[in-house]
Structure formats: C-alpha cells, structure tokens
Amino acid sequence: MSKKKTAAIVLAAGLGTRMKSSLPKVMHPVAGHPMVNHLIDTLAKLSLEKIVVVVGPDMEELEAAVQPHATAVQYERLGTGDAVKAGMTALEGFKGNVLVVYGDTPLISEVTLNSMIEAREEPQGGFAPAVVVLGFVPDDPGAYGRLVLDEDDGELLAIVEAKDASPEELAIPLCNSGVMCFDGELLPQMLGRLTNNNAKGEYYLTDCVGLARDDGFACAVVEGDEEEMLGVNSRAELAMAETIAQDRLREKAMKNGATLIDPSTVYFSYDTQIGKDVLIEPNVFFGPGVSVSDHVHIKANCHFEGASIDAGVIIGPFARLRPGSTLAEGARVGNFVEIKNADVEAGGKVNHLTYIGDARVGTGANIGAGTITCNYDGFLKSKTDIGQGAFIGSNTALVAPVTIGDGAIVGAGSTITRDVGENDIVTTRADQKNARGAAERFRERKRLEKEQQKKD
Q1: Contact 338, 372 (CB under 8 A)
Q2: Which positions ≥6 away from 448 have C-beta within 8 Å?
Q3: 144: domain range?
Q4: Contact 211, 193 (CB under 8 A)
C-alpha cells in the first residue's frame, strides 16, 4: 500500500482519426462501457487523492462521462508532455505520486498500477526513483520505444524511440507502454524543461527520463503483461480489446459457478452479475444493467438489457428483456417473448409469442400466446395490471390503462378495454356463425371459376 498520496492524470484528448468517428476515441465502448470509464473504474480501486482527465476542446460528452472527476483542456495537441502539463493545472501544489495513464487502455489492471506506485516509493541506491515506467515484452516490438536498462542493477537508463534506435537497441525486447509514475514534486520542473526539438514538433513525456537522470535521480521499470497494454487506435484494435474483455468476463462467470455451454457465443457487459448454478446456453447477449440470481436457466438466443432475473427463473429461447424488466423467483418466460418495464411476479408464466410492456404480471398468473399489452396510444404510456392467478387467453389485446383482477379469466381472442374484476370471466370475441355444408359449395364454385379462366 502506498505511503504517499497519489493522483492520476488520464490522457484522453486524442481525436482518434484512425477510428473514423465523430465520437471521441476513448468514448467507444468495450463490454458496454466507454474505454475511459473502464480505466477510471480501475483507478478508483487505488484510493487516489484525485483523478484528472485531460480532454480536447469541444469534448462535452467526454467531460460528462467522467464526472465527478476533474477535467483539464489541452487546447493544442502538442504531445504527451503538453497534455500532462495541462493536467497539472488541476494538481497545483500536489506533492505526492502522479500516475500518468491513457484513456484508450481499458484493460490495464489495478495490480499493475499499484505495482508502479509501490516501485515509485521503493529506494534504489538510497533514493526512490523519480520516474517509473511501465514496460512490457510484446510478440512483435515493431515501432514501440525500447527501454534501455543498466545491466548491473536494472535501472532505467533511457527510452529510445524505434526510429532513432541502433540495431543493438532494436534487439531489446522490453518496450515502453507510455504509462508512467512520477514524483509529483519534481514533475512540474521537468515538464517546464521539455523541448519540441523533434520531427513532430511535440513535447514528449518520455524525455523526462533523461531529464531526471541528468539531475542525478534514478528511474525504474515495472513490467506488465502485453494484453493489459493494448492501446485502442482503430476499429480492429477495439475489436481485439472487446475479445479480451469478453474472455475475462466469461472466465469470471464460470469461476463464480455459472455454466456456459459455448462460452465464445455469450457476451457480457462490464457490470453483468451472474449467480451460482446458472446455466447459459449459446448465443446470449447481456447489455448493461443485468443481474441474474442463482439457479437460473437461460436458453439459447436471448437478449437482455437493464433487467433483473431472480432465482429459479427459466427463460428463452429467443426471449428479450428490455430495461426495467424484473422476473421474480420461479417465473417462466418462453420463446419470442418481449418484456419491457414490467414485473413478472413469482411463478408467473409468459411462455410464448407475447409482448408485456409497462405492466405487472401477478404471482402465478398465466399469459397465453399472442397476448399484447397495448401500452402506448401514440402520446402516452399507460400501465396494465394483471392480478394474482389470472389467466389471459391466447391472442388477447389488453388496452392500457387496464386492470385484470386476481383469479380472473380472459377468453382467447379478446380485446379488453375496461377493468376486469376478481374471478370474473370475460370474452369480447364476436359470435360464431356456422354455415352448414358451405365449404363444399365454396370449393365447387371456385373450381368452376378456375376452369373458366383457363378457357378465356
């Protein structure tokens, strides 16, 4: 645990031109959550003193997404050093550790970041390092900057950009992730000494390593896993991040006692809660805000969002739960059923081909196939209340606002526009009329008409 206070600066001002999107790059979601919010959620686990997010001009959507954390605007995108300088305006006078991270790295872990903070306070040669850099060993070092270490004590000597590296330096497997942790007392003066004397005319934060060493301070490296270091700069890399995040979420669900018959076909959101002894069949998608209790059976090809599923529920196949849906213990929801902003109470059954919206389905009620709650009149939403133990026959339209009393029976094919009392039986279908023998006469007439058409 860190002895000093620590603040974090999240660099998020990049336009992400390779994403080809009007949405700020760090706002693109991974597992249903903006990349930058994944990172902020991880930082929140570190008990930081303050989090500052550096944004670009006219990024109001991003500023709103990271609230209540402070934001600082980088008006001119002149490199990472310039971005951190903008972030430091919100940390004036801060004397602790300053962790610099990137909003497009949603997979970095709390353990890795905590290791950097601890290394910043760990004396080397009697002094704690002024700068700690997060390194990793990729399968293909490519264009990554290389971390040059002292062969004797492992101290960081320099960060060399690939384009400036010698053949010997290019052979170094340890690469720079860009994530750094600084002594907050020294960082302002190092930022003030950065120059933009390079091909891009930018201020590079990595130059702080050289400045610190020139002043006699040590620099150190913490090595992390390549998977955590993935920075998202394109749609392809976004897909890679999604794949990694989904694999992590699937593994978590299975470790916690859920069975996924075909894990690769089940997609979770960052906040999905799955209980024990839950069976999930293939091709199930969980949007944000879904919780599933113990002993639930989710059949194939279901889609859930903003819903709560209590213990012992059986749902699907081909069922959809929209925001505001709750299924109480032992409820049954079958194929081609859509539920929105509605409660299905304990033991309620909605087994097939039905829409239930803005409604309550009482305990033990049974909803027949083809039932629709007509909840919208083109202007307003209204509620349907179906009582305990009620039975709704197939192909029924319940025109809200309407109440069906406990134990009531609604006959198949009815359109219900007025309240139904407890234990009432109601039907609204037209009277049946039988024309005896008419079918045979109809067929003979049509046969003659068809023959006449052929002659004509």
Answers
A1: no
A2: none
A3: 6-229
A4: yes
Residues 192 and 291 in one domain: no
**Residue 381: beta bridge partners?**
376
Interstrand relation of 397-399 and 372-374 (parallel, antiparallel or unpaired): parallel
Q: Which pLDDT tens digit goes with each residue over 24-67?
A: 999 999 999 999 999 999 999 998 999 999 999 989 999 999 99
Q: State pTM to two decimals.
A: 0.91
- Crossing angle (nearest 10°) for helices 35-44 and 110-120: 50
pLDDT at 429 over 80: yes
Catalytic residue among 28, 38, 69, 352: 352
Considering the domain architecture, whether residues 275 and 181 belong to the same structural domain is answered as: no
Is residue 456 very low, low, confident or very high in pLDDT (cuts 50, 70, 90)? Answer: confident
Q: What is the pLDDT of residues 371-393, one digit of tens each?
A: 999 999 999 999 999 999 999 99
Would you say residue 328 has pLDDT above 80?
yes
Asked whether residue 182 falls in the same domain as residue 315, the answer is no
Please count the other Cβ atoms lying within 10 Å of the Cβ belonging to residue 78: 17
**Catalytic site residue 297?**
no
